[in-house]
Amino acid sequence: MPSASEALADQLRADVLGGRLTLGTPLREEDIAGRTGHSRHTVRAALARLVAERLAVSEPFRGVRVTEPSDDDVVALQQLRCALESEAVRLLRATHGERWPDAVLAPVRAAVADLARQRDDDWPAVAAAHAAVHRSLVAAAGSPRITDAHDRLDAELLLVLVHVRPAYSVTGLVAEHATYVESVQRDGGGAVRAHLEHSTGIVLGARRAAGSGEHEA
Where is the HTH gntR-type domain (predicted)? Predict the structure, then answer.
């Protein structure tokens, strides 16, 4: 059974990744304690978990707030994902060559099928299912260290995606990732780099478009 601080962290994380707490929103201990009935100590521990996951930042004299990733943060995150996913694919190709067994691909294809079941109007669920495709591909390599390092990026990636929706549709994502699963078997790390560089460009374009819209408004 999760502790009170873990349960509260889960609740706050869901609010951030569901878009209910926007980027830069202050996370004040006293406000959260009053709203949820938890002690300040419990709230402080829950916020520390979000800070460790990079969903929140804590700064002297400013307190804790929801992280506002910069474009440089997005690029650095994608570069790290690329390194991890490329190594996972290298391991898979070293073991299975350019055509991987159905047993290896089954969890990845199941994740793509789950993505196809999502609705365009529920973007947080789409983003989570999208991330699960990449997570299942990395897990297929069977390296606990690589899988753990990649999993630790999940929350930060979803923070970027759910708050600035790129020009994606479920149908387009499914087709793109079905192709990706085939291309990484054939082309290895080159396919990973091309895929993630393409998605980085889309995300950065969406962020800049959203920023221009806010400025014009």
Answer: 2-69
